[in-house]
Amino acid sequence: MSGAPIGIFDSGLGGLSVWRQVVHHLPGESVIYLADQAHVPYGQRSAEEIQAYCNEIAAQLISMGCKAIVVACNTASAVALEPLRGAFPQLPILGLEPAVKPAVELTRSGVVGVMATPATFQGELYRATVGRWAGDVQVVEQVCIGLADLVEMGELEGERCDALLRSFLNPMLKAGADTIVLGCTHYPFVIEAIRRLVGPGLAVLDPAPAVARHLGEVLAAQGLLSGGSGGRELRFFTSAQPERFDRAVARLVGARCISQPLVWHQGHLHHR
Ligand code: DGL
Prior knowledge:
By secondary structure, this protein is of the alpha/beta class.
């Protein structure tokens, strides 16, 4: 079992920001990455719809032999993490939540900004995180409609990207935020543009390294860490166009990838 792969999924390319940290921190582990690009973006879909997709994706990853699953999507975690854990209690399922706790510890102005999708802010997980950690720190929520789409299209810089980012960053800056939380796994791919626009005085937090470390701890605690002997396998699946996905993987995380297509049919995922 310990040699079995870790399954990581997202609505699209965003979860690759988590994938690259997992691959880096856990060099002995095989990983299957599944991008549900047929349905990206998830952020404005209903909780029921997202839950149905996640349920089927988790079942697919389990049927591929995964020993643990990382929901590398804040949106999917916000609405589907608990239902998934209930439906598949046989393996550890980790999710992503906006890094409010480290932001609260870091801020000196007492104001932190969180960038995320509408579904993430509506979810119980986000409310609970803020309720637990914010204390007297003001948390400014910034819905970032369209930003995940830009990353999917490969537009990580340029005028359109800067204009959209400015429209999201300015309200947080005006409110006095000195710490910004990237509450969507797509956003670390525009972190350079964000840092350039906000300047060096602001902290911009990507939670992916902490998630990878936590995954290592969970696997170790359950005796699921791979011994690391032999070459590991890194496999990729997308529910949209494999060639396009492969080019994006090369561009975003510098990995050579030959992905395999999956197709949705009547609510179920099938190998083509
Ligand atoms: N990557 C997803 C997240 O972390 C969101 C993108 C989407 O809307 O599908 O929230």
